[in-house]
């Protein structure tokens, strides 16, 4: 088992990439903390992990709120005794409108949920990760953090920020043997793309807009997260791995 006895926090762990990764990590021996704002999906994911015989807890968490993140870290440490892996995965999209038409409150919400949350996760988890002696942080960025797309200015900005914040943290905490990397998924079959599927004109094009000509699955992203969390990636830090079917080069 590649993560035997490791303690892993996964934000947005109730669904999509987060749930797939939580299950994958549990199968590899990790003790799981599912952090999600949605209690229903969080508890569902918790049940699936416990069915595997793995140790896990659910902590209702608003990743954009400092006190909520501190509560997440404290409950993890109190229950499991420490932290080895932090997967800053929670995120949202924004309305597809021109920048001038994007509501300021929505801009703030996207930046807080996608970028500020990563900062808060790093800020409050680092002291415990230093204690582990071999800590790992994985941040979910996006293909749209690597290239621009019309009408998603807040999402573009937030995910681009995640990539540079990842590099910053890798530089600051490498001396403590903490590795910090990001994953940049392309179009993955999660709730965030449901509205796109209903667009009969755009979806046939969008769903094939990469070198492989298909969308990805949450499990395919979870496989990359597992690699980055494991000792197989012991000399990998400060990088962003694209999991996009070749969307970046398309």
Can you give a write-up of this model?
The protein is of the alpha/beta class. 44% of the residues lie in helices and 14% in strands. The protein contains eight helices and seven strands; from the N terminus they run E-H-E-H-E-H-E-H-E-H-E-H-H-H-E. It has helices at 16-27, 39-51, 66-80, 104-132, 153-173, 194-197, 203-206, 218-229; strands spanning 7-11, 31-36, 56-60, 85-88, 136-140, 179-185, 240-243. The longest helix is centred in the middle third of the chain and has 29 residues, at 104-132. The chain is globular, with a radius of gyration of 17 Å. The mean pLDDT is 97.
Radius of gyration: 17 Å
What spatial form do the alpha-carbon principal axes imply? globular
Cα distance spanning the termini: 36 Å
Helix content range of the residues, please?
A: 40-55%
Strand order of the largest sheet: 3-2-1-4-5-6-7
- Structural class from helices and strands? alpha/beta
Secondary-structure element series? EHEHEHEHEHEHHHE
Number of strands: 7
Any low-confidence stretches, pLDDT <50, length ≥5? Answer: none
* Biggest beta sheet attributes: 7 strands, parallel
Instruction: Tell me the number of helical segments per DSSP (H or I, 4 or more residues long).
Output: 8
Mean pLDDT: 97
Strand content: 5-15%
The multimeric state of the shown protein is single chain
């Amino acid at each position: 088992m590649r993560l035997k006895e490791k303690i892993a926090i996964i934000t947005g762990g109730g669904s999509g990439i987060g749930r797939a990764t939580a299950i994958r990590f549990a199968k590899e021996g990790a003790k799981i903390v599912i952090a999600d704002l949605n209690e229903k999906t969080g508890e569902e994911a918790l049940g699936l992990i416990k069915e595997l015989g793995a140790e896990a807890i659910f902590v209702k968490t608003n990743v954009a709120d400092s006190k909520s993140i501190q509560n997440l870290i404290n409950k993890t440490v109190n229950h499991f005794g420490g932290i080895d892996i932090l997967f800053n995965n929670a995120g949202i999209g924004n309305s597809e409108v021109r920048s001038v038409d994007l509501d300021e409150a929505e801009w703030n919400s996207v930046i807080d949920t996608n970028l500020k949350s990563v900062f808060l996760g790093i800020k409050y988890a680092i002291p415990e990760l230093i204690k582990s002696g071999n800590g790992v942080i994985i941040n979910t960025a996006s293909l749209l953090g690597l290239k621009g797309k019309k009408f998603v200015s807040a999402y573009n900005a937030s995910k681009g920020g995640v990539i540079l914040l990842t590099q910053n943290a890798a530089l600051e905490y490498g001396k403590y043997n903490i590795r910090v990397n990001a994953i940049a998924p392309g179009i993955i079959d999660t709730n965030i793309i449901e509205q796109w599927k209903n667009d009969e004109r755009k979806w046939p094009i969008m769903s094939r807009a990469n070198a492989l000509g298909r969308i990805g699955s949450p499990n395919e992203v979870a496989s990359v997260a597992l690699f980055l969390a494991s000792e197989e990636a012991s000399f990998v830090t400060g990088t962003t791995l694209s999991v996009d079917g070749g969307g970046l080069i398309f």
